[in-house]
Amino acid sequence: MELRDGSYFIQNVSVIDLAEQFGTPLYVYDAEKIIHQFKSLKMAFSGADVKVKYAIKALSNVSILKLLKRHGAGADAVSIHEARLALHAGFAPSEIMFSPNCADFSEIEEAVKLGLIINIDNLSFLKKFGAQYRSSYPCSIRLNPHIMAGGHYKISTGHSNSKFGISIYQLPQIVEIVRQYNINVNGLHVHTGSDIYEADVFLKMAEILFGLASDFPDLKFIDFGSGFKVAYQEGDLVTNIYDLGLKLTQSFAEFCRQYGRKLELWIEPGKFIVSEAGTLLVKTTVVKPTPSVTFVGVNSGLNHLIRPMMYDAYHHIVNVSNPSGSQKMYTVVGYICETDTFGADRKMNEVQEGDILAIRNAGAYCYSMASNYNSRLRPAEVLVINNEAKLIREAETFEDLLKGQVDIGL
Ligand code: LLP
User: Fold this and answer.
1) Which residues belong to CATH 2.40.37.10 in the chain?
2) Can you give the C-alpha Rg of the chain in angstroms?
3) What per-residue confidence (pLDDT) applies to 157?
4) Choice from 56, 57, 222 to test ligand 1 binding pocket (greatest atom count within 8 A of CB)
C-alpha cells in the first residue's frame, strides 16, 4: 500500500474504492508483493539448488497457492487438509512437504497414499513408519537443534522444551531405528521458530545438521525451515536474506563437497512471502474519548486478526480516509467482548466515525487464524493482481454459522 497524490493505493487500485466496492472488514492481498518476496528468496539462495516450499499455514487461500505455484514454489503442509488444498491448487504430490506435529499417524498413512514427502518428528512415529514401510517409501526427519530463537516464546520451536522435532541428543536412537527397519532417510529438517532476524541462528543450525548428516547416506535435501523476519514497524530488525543466503549457500556447498554429493537446499517461508502483502481494511464504528484515552472502535476484532492479542504483535494502522489530517493519539480496539486491542497509544491522522483504517502486515497468520468467536462472520478476501481487484473468498453469511449444527428437535 502506498500514498500517491493524496490517496492510498495497492498497485493502481484505490484502497477507499476497495472498501466501497467489497465492504468492510476486508482482507486485501497484493499479488505483486507476494511474487516480489518469493523471487527475492530464490535470488538470495541462488548459490544452491534451492527449493522454496511455501508454508501454507500462513495464508491458505487457494488463489494464493495457485499464484505461488505458477511462479515455481513448492508447498509445506502441516495437516492433511493443507496438503489437500495444495493438491487442489495444482501442486504435484512430490512438491509437497508434509510436516505434521502430534497429528494422528493415519494422516501420515494418507500422505503416503497421496505420494507426499513425509517428515517425521518423533521416535515413536519413526518406528511405526519403519515397521510399516521399511525402505519402500522414503522419509525426512525433523530434528530439534536445541536453539532458542524467534520473536516470541509462543513461536519458538527449536529449543529444548519445545514439542517439535526429535532432539539431536537422541541421534543414537534415530540411527538405531533407521538401521533396524532399513528406512530410506531422504532429508533432514529443522525449523527453529518465526521472526528470527539473526543470520547466525540459521548458520548455527546448519552447522549442527551438517555435523550429523554423515549418519544418513541417502539424503536428497536439507530443509532449513523458515523464520525469516520482515518489518512490522519502522526500525524493526529484519533478516537480511541476501547476507544469509550467501553465507548459508557457501557453507552448504562446502558441506556437499564433504558429503560427496550435491543436495537440494530447502526453505519453508510463510511470513516472509505474504505478511507485508496483506492489509485488513476496517471501518471506524465509534470514536470514544474517555478521561484517559480516546478509543477508536472498529468493525473487526481478534476474531479476524489475533496476533496483537496472542503474541503482543505490533501491526501498523493507517487512517486511509484522512491521509493529510493532523495527528492525534488513539487506542484502536475491536468489537469482541473481551480485551481486544489492535494498537494502543497510536499516533494517527484524526479519525472520524466511518473512516476506513488499514491494518498492515495482515497477510500472514491473520485470515488463517481467524474464527467465528462472538458469532462474528469472517470477512471476504480480495487479491489485487495486474492492477485489478479480484474477489478470492466471499464473506461468510449467517447461514455459515448454522452449517453443520444438528437440530435435535429441542
Ligand atoms: N515451517 C514450519 C515447520 C513451521 O512450523 C512454520 C511456521 C514455517 C515453516 C513458516 O514460518 P514463517 O516463515 O512464517 O516464520 N502464528 C504465528 C507464527 C507461527 C509459525 C508456525 N510455524 C505468528 O503469527 O507469528
Assistant:
1) 2-29+275-402
2) 23
3) 83
4) 57
